[in-house]
User: Which sequence fits this backbone?
């Protein structure tokens, strides 16, 4: 049975936004435009996968097996946010720098989902 969560819609929204940006700005450098399309495609795949129960079950199984990667998502999220802000700031808030930082949200969002799932697992016990 498929189930839709908040993260299903967040992945979908991120994919739509990244696709719209890549299509709406034809003057972007080709590598940035390509990375936007790749991230949008990855977001659509995550959106599809997050509707299946095995997505959550594998996360819970991974969490219970290791029971220590709780700090890892926080470190990855913090690293990427600091990296995005540093990159945008060092390039004087140009459109390319902002878009270059925006496509990296596809890395942050699965780790946020991991944190939420582990919170739910901990609250059940």
Assistant:
């Amino acid at each position: 049975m498929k189930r839709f969560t908040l993260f299903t819609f967040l992945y979908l929204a991120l994919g739509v936004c990244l696709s719209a940006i890549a299509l709406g700005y034809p003057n972007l450098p080709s590598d940035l435009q390509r990375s936007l399309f790749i991230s949008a495609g990855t977001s659509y795949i995550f959106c599809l996968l997050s509707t299946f129960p095995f997505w959550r079950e594998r996360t819970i199984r991974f969490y219970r097996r290791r029971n220590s990667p709780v700090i890892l998502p926080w470190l990855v999220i913090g690293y990427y946010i600091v990296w995005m802000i540093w990159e945008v700031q060092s390039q004087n808030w140009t459109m390319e720098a902002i878009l270059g930082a925006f496509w990296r949200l596809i890395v942050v969002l699965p780790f946020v989902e991991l944190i939420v799932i582990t919170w739910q697992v901990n609250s059940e016990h």
User: Anything to note?
Assistant: Helices lie at 6-24, 30-49, 53-66, 71-90, 95-102, 105-124. The mean pLDDT is 85. The chain is about 80% helix and 0% strand.
